[in-house]
Design goal:
The protein has helices at about 10-30, 45-65, 75-85, 90-115, 120-140, 145-165, 175-195, 200-220, 220-225, 230-255, 265-295, 305-325, 325-350, and strands spanning about 295, 350. With about 375 residues, the chain is mostly helical. It has one domain (about 5-35, about 40-350): Cytochrome c oxidase-like, subunit I domain (Cytochrome C Oxidase, Chain A, Up-down Bundle). Helix 8 runs antiparallel to helix 10 (about 230-255).
């Protein structure tokens, strides 16, 4: 396969390295006997998966969309921060790299807002600010079990902003937009409460997640496009299943409240990060990867394999959490990792060299 933009491959590779290493660390956290490079490495699972992988991927996609050379500093810095975590540089050095990358993403959205001062752009820019604040708190010594909610807010606000952009096609009413802003306010208020009342902050945060799940399920164009065929239907199914998991995560947070460790904490976070976030990645990958690499991607029904397996393996994991069934949690978590590897394999194998006179590739999912 020949790609049109090979200079972007190293940046994408940094994100993939963070993903694979984060999965490796995650298996250790689940209790699997895997060799690690040093003691405490498993604690890097969250930072590698969120700021290392997802932050780098979002930064790269936004740099491509903006089209300014300086914007590529965002994925470069977060990717280098992930490498720093992996090889064992002083923790603060890696944290500062990731903070710097998130600040560049804020600057990217500032440039986007100047071009398009619309609600969706302000929303995504707000998500980038939340990520930067979360990284700052991490640098200041806040524990990951608190910071992870700031990282989660970054992702859900960014994704909601992207979907809000497309929801314009359905002419979302002013009342619906006001409700959207109210739900964002609830979510962010929960974040601000975390430092004073962890339990209350998590419950309020969960209310915001559950509300956004309902809002997105009601107003996303996927409700209409799911009736179509081929890739369009596949994307819609991924989105709608992701909103279900977002709602489950929100309800779990509301029910269990602040739990720094344990099966309830695992269920709340992984319903969000695996069920919701990776469903969004599955949906957007056929659009984003070709846009970033300048290649084509051939849609195949085989893509449903990693979508279905994600649902099954996550249900097994969460049943293990709910029933105190450690084997179910461990096996479900292992199969979650296998599913993500299958997704990468399906995605890479579907990429094709671009035609000689290919037109510009869009970076938005339908």
């Amino acid at each position: 396969m020949v790609v049109r933009h090979p200079h972007r491959l190293p940046l994408l590779a940094l994100g993939m390295l963070a993903l694979l290493t984060g999965l490796w660390a995650g298996l250790s956290r689940l209790g699997w006997d895997v060799s690690l490079p040093r003691p405490g490495f498993s604690s890097l699972h969250g930072p590698l998966m969120v700021s290392g992988f997802l932050g780098t991927l979002i930064g790269l996609e936004r740099a491509v969309a903006l089209g300014r050379p300086w914007a590529y500093a965002a994925p470069l810095l977060t990717g280098l921060g992930a490498v720093g975590l992996i090889v064992g540089v002083p923790l603060l050095a890696a944290q500062l790299l990731m903070l710097a990358g998130s600040l560049v993403l804020v600057a990217i959205f500032a440039a986007i807002i100047r071009r398009h001062p619309a609600l969706y752009a302000f929303t995504m820019g707000g998500g980038a600010i939340v990520w930067a604040l979360g990284n700052l708190l991490w640098c200041l010594g806040w524990p990951v079990f608190l910071v992870v909610f700031w990282w989660a807010a970054f992702l859900v606000v960014t994704i909601a902003g992207e979907r809000l952009e497309l929801a314009r096609l359905q002419q979302v009413s002013g009342a619906a937009q006001a409700m959207f802003l109210l739900l964002l306010g609830i979510l962010l208020t929960g974040l601000l409460l975390l430092g004073w009342s962890f339990d209350g902050g998590v419950r309020l945060f969960g209310l915001g997640l559950a509300g956004l799940a309902l809002w997105l399920g009601r107003h996303d164009i996927a409700r209409r496009t799911v009736k179509q065929t081929g890739l369009t239907r596949f994307i819609a199914i991924c989105l709608l299943t992701g909103y279900v998991w977002l709602g489950i995560s929100g309800l779990s947070a509301m029910w269990f409240g602040g739990m720094p460790v344990g099966p309830q904490y695992d269920a709340t976070l992984h319903a969000f990060f695996i069920g919701f976030v990776f469903a969004m990645i599955f949906a957007h990958a056929p659009i984003i990867f070709p846009a970033v690499l300048g290649a084509r991607m051939t849609y195949r029904p085989l893509f449903y394999a990693h979508v279905v397996l994600l649902q099954i393996t996550l249900v097994v994991r969460l049943l293990g959490d709910a029933m105190g069934w450690s084997a179910g949690r461990q096996v479900g978590g292992l199969l979650n990792a296998v599913t993500l590897l299958l997704f990468l394999g399906n995605t890479v194998s579907a990429l094709r060299s671009p035609p000689a006179q290919a037109g510009r590739v869009q970076t938005r999912a339908s």
